[in-house]
Specification:
heterodimer; A: alpha/beta; Rossmann fold; six-stranded mixed beta sheet; 7 helices; 12 strands; about 30% helix; B: about 350 residues; mainly beta; 2 domains; eight-stranded parallel beta sheet; about 45% strand; disordered N terminus; disordered C terminus; binds adenosine-5'-diphosphate; binds magnesium ion
């Protein structure tokens, strides 16, 4: 079954069409990568899939586990199991990481899980990821280094355990050690029930999270699709050689 | 007298909604409660500290125990069950933080009276330190006038924080005199809804070299609520290297809410650093989106951002002195905020 499906999706930003008739299907258990230069529309795609109000979806549909989630509120999408690890997580001074995580989990899990259990899971998971306890009392993403921000995105991925996760440039701005720990964490969360869309413009994260399919995005469209070897071709030859072709391999 | 009691002609009072009777700024129910220019104490003789006719000045003397343990001194102006018949409440209080001592005072205002007029005059002696928190959550039909006069001796340090959440209308004036090497931090927040109105005055008078004042007031305004920030930085002659900053930040959550920021500078020394800033914002769509993308409902996300806005002040409230209910209403219950 397709865990995630994007059908004929078009998105305008400030009146300009950035994503153009975009389609992609991902089966449970699969990892897909989208690679593309800066400005090719990767973040526009991911933010609009999650429902950011600044991105105007002009046509198309999005399905999660077969359910049409196109018009759901952002929080509803999250509760149904869609996760977006953001490229630039916004700072929220005055909201502590701990409070934020507890509130998020309470909202997603409802009253099923007692607060003490929520607290324990956050603590345990942070410990596993070698995130110091003091970190939980800091203001959310406020004054965080690039690495800390992405580590926190990955901690949320792990705690929320979504059905489908879009990770937008989780690798950018990280040094080699941070990249390795974050990428290995993502890799460990692969499962036959879960799908991933890894967005990047470098090949290196894909060494740790081996994709089943790689898609090349130029100007808001997939121009080429292939197996993991495509990432290596891109690495050595760059995007210049990729001529826009019809979006056919996306269904893979 | 004229400085004390403004008239409608005074442009400083253009924005305030505090009713101005011929007696001045007092709420009508307090009109017979005349301010006089008698000073509280000798050391205030050149600083216009008003006394209230017929009101006995209370002196605050912390217990030896409290002093020793640097505990919060809990000032409760009027308990909510006091004489139901008393519609007006007037009070005057003064205290001195002696040389080398350090006091922490928590002033809790929760009067059920119709109106209140409260004067506080505080002297922080050389090298002494004061931490002061004013928490105002009075009945929603209450009107108040609240004055804090803070006199800082050389090298004294004081931080005053306030949070205004209750009352229909109120005016809070904090006036400080800051001597050489003394430091005064004023941080306040208002959280107002319906037709609540709070008028804040922050007057920093620098009287010595290398003195410092830093004032920030955060307003959260819903519905038709309104707030006024009257900021004054006055630097007298011969106060080189003085630094004085004031800023007023407002989160407007309704089109009908209003804020007026009136900054003033009077500077008589050249070598100083001063700034005034004001900003008005609404909820940040990126922050809302981030919270909602983690499954947090729109309403909870908004509440979190509103709480976060006044958190610079609230994180300093002595939680142990607030009731569970009060803490919950501030989003401070349990360890929901891990500050
Ligand atoms: N908020 C925005 N306002 C205006 N233009 C935007 C905005 N977001 C993205 N764009 C434009 O959309 C295009 C794609 O940007 P983006 O999706 O961020 O690309 P990528 O993530 O691949 O680097 C760029 O031309 C960018 O300038
Ligand atoms: Mg991007």
């Amino acid at each position: 079954m397709n865990i995630f499906e994007i059908k004929n999706f078009s998105v305008n930003v400030e009146g300009k069409e950035i994503i153009k008739d975009f389609s992609l299907s991902i089966k449970a258990g699969e990892v897909h990568a989208i690679m593309g230069k800066n400005g090719s529309g990767k973040t526009t795609l991911s933010m609009s899939l999650m429902g950011h109000p600044a991105y105007d979806v002009t046509s198309g549909q999005v399905f999660l586990s077969g359910e049409d989630i196109t018009d759901l509120d952002t929080e509803e999408k999250a509760r149904k199991g869609l996760f977006l690890g953001m490229q630039h997580p916004v700072a929220i001074p005055g909201v502590s990481v701990g409070n934020f995580l507890r509130t998020a989990l309470k909202n997603v899990w409802g009253d099923k899980v007692p607060v003490t259990e929520i607290r324990k899971r956050i603590k345990d998971e942070a410990q596993k990821m070698k995130i110091p306890a003091e970190f939980l009392s800091r203001s959310l993403n406020d004054g965080f280094s690039g690495g800390e921000k992405k580590k926190l995105e990955t901690l949320q991925l792990s705690l929320l355990a979504p059905k489908f996760a879009i990770m937008d440039e989780t690798d950018s701005g990280l040094d080699i050690d941070a990249l390795k720990s974050v990428a290995e964490k993502i890799h460990s969360l692969r499962s036959p029930e879960r799908g991933f869309l890894i967005i990047t413009h470098y090949q290196r994260i894909l060494n740790y999270v081996k994709p089943d399919y790689v898609h090349v995005m130029i100007n808001g469209k997939i121009v080429k699709s292939g197996g993991p070897e495509l990432a290596l071709v891109l690495e050595s030859e760059g995007y210049e050689g990729m001529s826009p072709v019809k979006n056919e391999g996306a269904k893979a | 007298m004229s400085e004390l009691i403004p008239s409608r002609k005074d442009e400083n009072y253009r924005y305030t909604q505090i009713p101005l009777s011929s007696e001045g700024w007092l709420p009508e129910s307090l009109a017979n409660c005349e301010a006089t220019k008698e000073s509280f104490h000798a050391w205030t003789s050149d600083f216009y500290i008003p006394a209230l006719k017929g009101v006995e000045v209370q002196k605050l003397i912390p217990s030896r125990e409290a002093q020793k343990n640097n505990e919060w001194i809990f000032l409760r102006s009027e308990s909510s069950d006091s004489k139901a018949s008393s519609k007006k409440y007037r009070g005057a209080l003064e205290f001195v933080v002696p040389k080398g001592k350090s006091y922490k005072v928590f002033e809790f205002l929760e009067s059920n009276a119709e109106s209140s007029l409260l004067m506080r005059s505080i002297r922080v002696e050389e090298g002494a330190e004061l931490e002061y928190f004013v928490y105002q959550n009075q009945a929603l039909n209450h009107e108040f006038v609240l004055r804090h006069f803070v006199d800082l001796a050389p090298s004294a340090k004081a931080s005053m924080r306030f949070f205004h959440k209750g009352s229909q209308r109120g005016q809070h004036r904090v006036a400080a005199r800051i001597a050489k090497d003394a430091e005064f931090l004023l941080e306040g927040a208002t959280h107002l809804e319906a037709s609540q109105h709070i008028d804040v005055w922050a007057e920093m008078q620098h009287e010595g070299a290398t003195s410092l004042s830093q004032t920030t007031v955060w307003n959260v305004l819903l519905d038709q609520a309104s707030a006024v920030f009257n900021g004054m930085i006055r630097i007298l002659k011969n106060c080189p290297q003085t630094k004085a900053y004031q800023s007023n930040k407002t989160l407007l959550l309704s089109e009908k809410a209003r804020v007026s920021t009136i900054p003033k500078l009077e500077i008589s020394t050249d070598d100083v650093k001063c700034s005034h800033g004001a900003s008005v914002s609404t909820l940040d769509p990126d922050q809302l989106f981030y919270l909602r993308s983690r499954g947090i409902s729109r309403e909870s996300a908004q509440d979190m951002l509103v709480e976060a806005f006044t958190m610079p002040v609230l994180q300093h409230v002595p939680k142990c002195l607030l009731s569970e209910h009060e803490q919950a209403s501030l989003g401070l219950k349990g360890d929901s905020h891990v500050f």
